[in-house]
Amino acid sequence: MPKPHELVAERTRRLVEEHPPGETPVRDFLAARFDAGLAWVRFPEGLGGLGLPHGLQPVSDAIVEAAGGPDPFALNPMGYGMAGPTLVAHGSPELRRRLLRPLYVCDDIWCQLFSEPGAGSDLAGLATRATRGADGAWTVDGRKVWTSKAHEARWALLLARTDPDVPKHAGLTYFVLDMRDPGVEVRPLRQMTGDADFNEVRLDGARIPDDHRLGPAGAGWRVAMTTLANERSAIGGGSTVRGAGPIAPALELWRDRPDLRTPVRRDRLVSLFARADALRLTGIRYAAAPSDYPNSPEGTLGKLVDAELNQDVLEFCVEMLGAEATAFPSYEPGGDPAADAARRADVRWRFLRSRANTIEGGTAEVLRNVLGERALGLPGDVRVDKDRPWRDVPRG
Amino acid sequence: MSDDIDGGPFVLDGERRALRALVRDHAAREWDEAALRAAIGPGARLDRDRWRRLGSELGVLGPDVPATWGGGGGGLPDTVLAAEELGAALAPVPYAGTVLAAWTLLASGDEEALAEHLPALCAGTSVYAVACTDARGAWMPPRPSVRAEGGAVTGTAAHVVGAPDADHLIVLAATGDGPSLFVADVGAPGLAVTPITSLDLTRPQATVVFDGTPARPVGTPGRAVCALSAAADRAVVAVAAEALGASARLLADTVRYAGTRMQFGRAIGSHQAVKHRCADVLTAVEQTRSVVYHAAWTADFGGDDPALTASLARTAAAATLTAAADAAVQIHGGMGFTWEHTAHLYFKRAHFDAVLWGGLASHRERIAALVLDVLEPAPA
Ligand SMILES: Cc1cc2nc3c(=O)[nH]c(=O)nc-3n(C[C@H](O)[C@H](O)[C@H](O)COP(=O)(O)OP(=O)(O)OC[C@H]3O[C@@H](n4cnc5c(N)ncnc54)[C@H](O)[C@@H]3O)c2cc1C
Fold first, then answer.
1. Shortest Cα distance, chain A CAs vs residue B311, angstroms
2. B216-to-A297, B148, B165, B169, B183 alpha-carbon distances in Å
3. Which region is the signal sequence (chain A) (predicted)?
4. Cβ contact (<8 Å) for B2 and A289?
5. Residue A366 Cα, ligand 1 centroid: separation in angstroms?
6. How many CB atoms sit inside 10 A of residue A136's CB?
7. ipTM of this model?
8. How far apart are CA A77 and CA A81, in angstroms?
9. Which residue from B minimizes the CA distance to A241?
10. Which atom of ligand 1 is least distant from the CA of A78?
11. Residue range A341-395, pLDDT digits in tens
């Protein structure tokens, strides 16, 4: 019997040999990877996994990354990073069997209908209502906002209020919503980059069968915690390859533009590089061995560091470019996918986009609260709404 | 679950966990605050009994030293675990300097010198320090300010860490063949060791003046820089590990204080300005742990460039300890500025470490040279 990490490495090497990423269509590569149990090695066999420890995932990822294989997180972030793990933890066997494979091969894009105009950081304060009809099915009314990929998504993770008369965390229920339902209306929201990657989503009598509920009614917060924990570790995962990930644009610029090199910039880039490598190694360490801090929300730490590093790296790039950075590629994304991909690869575009990193998936302030309270055990913030029925809590 | 993955820098096997627990218990027992205070008072000297126990009972003084010369085996990963625990307690012992001395001797390849010195070094019965600074304290100067001639050395080495307690000095001296290594015995004629008040009281230092001091050559003449550099690349990882341990301890102490000190009717740690600062130290400590363990592991088992990983570990750990110590002093408020509180001892360690053995600038420079200066634009 080969050791588990050898098994994963060997299987992954075989995968990239038999399906060379350069020549294989993305979908086919992902399908082969799913069927080989290398999508999420910790998932059960038959569901994209091998039932092995999570710590072995980087073994496979590094080989795929080095071979130039597709990154499922980039293609279907909410699907790969959040929906997959949530389905495996809380979905019925039937839902998992039906939804996981198309999710991984990106036939189905997923989105996350959590945030609302009145509930961002305070997610448990959300107001979207789900009520149960006589047939057991649910009807949903409300308004969600900043929903990434809603315009492309087939399925949504939805958190809704099912009981307004209990304190906010107790009255929530978690669903998988079909975005093709006629009660779902998606309207693009423009971002500071000029793109419209996220949306406003109106739910007006949208219908959800009861077998699309994850976890018991009223227990949605617990399910949401699975999603949020996975969201943070997926976002903060970084790269397993030195020089790739958040630091890559700065190293590329340094390489390609010797004319812009100065000793001061060289010193700054050394600091950024050192931070990037520490983040990279921490991702690998956390995957291999749980942190020494009990209850440490490890993904939270990586997400926070990744977000701030990304911003600092791109700020460095823009400063290095100087006057050249004052011209923006274009605020009007065009129809041509190749031109648009080039626009989004530009460090100036990435610089603007990086401002979202400390907001999306939990703000830097909220993550520091989480680390302070859950990893370090410091006393909680003042909470004025904890024990009151949700309907009596001021909002705005 | 993680035990399913064998090896790698981040999964400690049972033996390493046991070693760490052993050193942790030792440090807690021997270096509680009262012992630490006593050891850094005016005129205080290294506690030889405690030091010997580190050698004879714990076997952590001679990493990589073969058993024939008294070593207990164990490479850099083991050293790092020991250093982390000693650093956490701020144990006022010359641990880093001793592993530097051991590795310098080993790197010299001089079997006679190894047989003569290593058994006592490993057992903790003799204390070694490395004198390879010039008269102004510059580390490994290209032109040493100490010269060797006819079996004797003459000149001055300043800021020699560990010298006040040393029995033997490993000396870097200029010769006709280039910089070479020698061993001089403290107490030999023409050797003056003048202790100076050290910023970091737990790392005593001295000015050493050699005046025709008899000294025995070690290793191949002219090869000193090579041996010293190889040893230093490993020893700086041990220094980084000490800083890691100190940072983690400071964070724990600061968090405990922030959870109990009440102001405005709440624990200060419930205020975000305080809580967030603690969270930032936590992220720094966690990142540093990854870099230090990785450096230790790859130095022994390969898989990465040991020069780069050593410099990364050294810079990360020093920055983290500085941040942890700054936060500790600040969050303890007025109490944090008192001599009675231990925060200043860690603060001083942090700023001492930042210049120890060539300082951080040299390591940042090396990272730049290894990572940035090698990047060539693609040909047009
Ligand atoms: C690009 C992008 C994509 C997104 N995609 C999605 C998506 O797909 N699905 C989805 O559901 N949501 C999505 N979001 C929404 C995101 O999760 C929220 O924006 C985020 O949680 C913050 O909520 P908010 O915008 O309401 O800010 P607020 O909660 O109003 O916060 C405003 C400011 O107050 C601070 N603050 C709030 N509470 C505290 C506190 N307790 N302590 C200290 N400071 C505090 C915040 O840190 C922030 O600086 C996306 C956001 C962005 C920017």
1. 9
2. 56, 10, 20, 11, 5
3. none
4. yes
5. 9
6. 10
7. 0.91
8. 5
9. B304
10. 8
11. 999 999 999 999 999 999 999 999 999 999 999 999 999 988 888 889 999 998 8
